[in-house]
Amino acid sequence: MQVVAYTGSEPQPGTRALAVESPVNLVYGSVPHAVMMATPADLEDFAYGFSLTEGIIESADEIRATRVEAGADGLRLHVELAPGRLREHLARKRAISGRTGCGVCGIEDLAELPRAEMRDAPDVRVALPAIARALQGLDAAQVLGAETRAVHAAAWARLDGTLVAAREDVGRHNALDKLIGALMRAGTDTADGFLVITSRCSFEMVEKAARLGAAVVVAISAPTSLALERAKAHGITLCAIARSDTLTVFTGAERLVPGV
Q1: Domain spans of the chain?
Q2: Residue 137 C-alpha from the chain's centroid
């Protein structure tokens, strides 16, 4: 779009790219489930990742098909579940109103807060230089972020720091769900890598990481107190305030090792 930028007191006409933010209505069967404000890209990945982290599915093969339908007010993301899974979902369906800054809007009771199934995190070791390489790779992978300065990113790195996949979205939860969906669809073994996110590390980001099976989470920003509590409960190594030359480890430091 056309803008006017100021350097000092001098106006400079120019153009600026904006991140697209669109309502996306996830529909299972013919029943609407949630409206999320999201970037309308990689929506098939989003369908898989959201379905997993919401507890609607347990594996990728429980989704038979996805379809995006454009409407006057936004997009409808239709998700066709396996018959048995659809019946289970409809039996316990909850409606939520999704926002880019809140992942639990609409729940009615504290007991409904997301909690991934407790399980032992993989016994991996990550070298500090590998984290630095992943962070450098993430900078290059944020194409939309470079254009707009208005989106979050989530990426999966191999143990050597090489990025396998990265996804971006105006919502930090959505970016992670899209990444999780991409990894599910590709059959990626999450016992051999670690997660990198650009956003604040909230408790729900940790819960999503636990659903993915990530043992190590590296966040650019700081974690919250509940995120740290949940990371400890899941046995997840939580690193934050991460830069190429500095890192703060909040829990699970035994997984980090020197290296080249």
Answers
A1: 22-112, 126-257
A2: 17
Q: DSSP characters for 66-114?
A: EEEEE-SSSEEEEEEE-HHHHHHHHHS---EE-BTTBSSTT--SGGGS-
Q: Specify the CATH architecture of the domain 22-112.
A: Roll (3.10)
Q: Please state the length of the chain.
A: 260
Q: Which helix (H) or strand (E) holds 238?
A: strand 237-243
Q: How far is CA 147 from CA 20, 46, 136, 168, 208, in A?
A: 12, 22, 17, 12, 27
d(CA 20, CA 13): 22
- Extract the tokens encoding 243: 């830069």
Task: Identify the active-site residue in 102, 105, 201, 239.
Answer: 102
Query: What's the CATH number for 126-257?
Result: 3.40.140.10
**CA separation for the pair 217, 156 (Å, rounded):** 10
68-107 pLDDT per residue, tens: 999 889 999 999 999 999 999 988 865 455 555 555 555 5
- Please say if 102 is a catalytic residue: yes
- Sign of the four-CA dihedral 100, 103, 104, 106: positive
Give me the sheet containing 193-197, strands edge to edge: 163-169, 152-158, 193-197, 216-219, 237-243, 246-251
3-state secondary structure of 4: strand
Separation CA 188–CA 192 (nearest Å): 9
pTM of the predicted protein model: 0.91
